[in-house]
Amino acid sequence: MKPHKNKINKDKQKEYFLSLIDKRFLWLTKNTYISLKEKELLRPVEEMSLGKVLEIGVGEGNNIVNLDLDVDNSIGIDILL
Fold first, then answer.
1. What pLDDT, on the 0 to 100 scale, is given for residue 33?
2. Whole-number pLDDT of residue 40
3. Residues 6+ apart with CB under 8 A from 32
4. 2 part of a folded domain
5. Is the CB of residue 51 less than 8 Å from the CB of residue 30?
6. Residue 57 region, left (φ>0) first, then alpha (ψ -120 to 50), else beta?
7. 19-48, pLDDT tens digit by residue?
8. Scanning 2, 16, 40, 56, which has the fewest C-beta atoms within 10 Å of its C-beta?
9. Is 1 part of any domain?
10. The model's pTM
11. Rounded to whole angstroms, what are the CA distances from 67 to 39, 44, 45?
């Protein structure tokens, strides 16, 4: 049976979004302007963190990178379904 032309191909959609993960991570962590804005948004978290952070739903991990915390004290967990 041929799929309906308007039906979303979930495998292709997942493949497309996964192909953008590295580009998005670099944009959020290396782009001078965007990285600065991300760090400004995260400043309250950094001030409260006491140097330790657990992020659930971490995605690419860009928040932990932008927090500039010691990697040994930062944990990020994400489950890809």
1. 95
2. 93
3. none
4. no
5. no
6. left
7. 888 888 899 899 999 999 999 998 898 888
8. 2
9. no
10. 0.64
11. 6, 10, 8
Query: Residue 38 is encoded by which pair of tokens?
Result: 């991300």
* Domains: count for the chain: 1
Amino acid of residue 1: M
The answer to whether position 3 is within a domain reads: no
Coil, helix or strand for 74?
A: strand
- With helix as H, strand as E and coil as C, how does the chain read? CCCCCCCCCHHHHHHHHHHCHHHHHHHHHHCHHHHHHHHHHHHHHHHHCCCCEEEECCCCCHHHHHCCCCHHHEEEECCCC
Residue 68 structural domain: 10-77
